[in-house]
Inverse folding.
């Protein structure tokens, strides 16, 4: 993370204490962002949320911008690690990859309301978009590239001759983000199982031989991994 640890020479128990405080500050920053927005989040609101002094915040991150930078870097790293695990577990199976991607996209911790709320705050506020782009641009691009690639593989191997892989990938990611936003805004209760069903319905409409509509029996070559 970009929270600076320069000048800290503590080892052993002091090191553990330092790291725990460091993590608590980051989690407290997420809470402050969700409750107050980025513009309403200050060093003091973070300190109050974390139960530490403002001097401790400065010691770990130097400035408010330093903490905000560390938070989005952590969120980006969390999702990227999860995507790589999914890639490894899928082992080249496009159906399994998309199913696993749906699972991590609605994971109760990785995609909790807190984390989704913070993610939207960074992407939505003009003053924070430079921070968001610095850490998330490459992650977003790689996600799109990979979803497009597996959609293209399914289209070619499954004989779906009229599939536009770019459009399908945009639709898949867009549907996922719509579900996040609906839940975040409280427009509807987006339960995990319902969200999975929505994503499965989208995929079944595009690749009917590989995915099934929720509530219906399996068809043809479907493999759910």
């Amino acid at each position: 993370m970009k929270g600076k640890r320069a000048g800290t020479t503590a080892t052993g128990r002091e090191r553990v204490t330092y790291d725990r405080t460091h993590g608590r500050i980051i989690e407290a920053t997420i809470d402050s962002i969700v409750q107050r927005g980025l513009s309403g989040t200050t060093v003091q609101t973070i300190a109050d949320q974390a139960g530490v002094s403002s001097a401790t915040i400065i010691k770990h991150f130097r400035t408010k911008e330093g903490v905000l930078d560390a938070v989005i870097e952590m969120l980006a790293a969390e999702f990227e690690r999860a995507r790589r695990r999914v890639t490894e577990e899928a082992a080249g199976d496009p159906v399994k990859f998309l199913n696993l991607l749906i699972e991590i996209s609605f994971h109760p911790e990785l995609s909790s309301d807190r984390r989704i709320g913070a993610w939207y705050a960074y992407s939505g506020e003009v003053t924070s978009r430079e921070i968001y782009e610095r850490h998330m641009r490459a992650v977003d691009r790689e996600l799109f590239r990979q979803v497009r690639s597996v959609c293209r593989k399914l289209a070619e191997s499954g004989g779906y001759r009229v599939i536009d892989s770019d459009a399908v990938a945009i639709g898949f990611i867009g549907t996922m983000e719509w579900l996040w936003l609906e839940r975040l805004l409280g427009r509807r209760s987006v339960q995990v199982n319902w969200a999975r069903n929505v994503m499965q319905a989208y995929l079944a409409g595009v690749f009917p031989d590989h995915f099934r509509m929720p509530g219906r029996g399996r068809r043809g070559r479907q493999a759910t991994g």
In short: The two ends are 34 Å apart (CA to CA). Residues 64-206 form a domain with the Tetracycline Repressor; domain 2 fold (CATH 1.10.357.10). The first helix runs from residue 12 to 40.
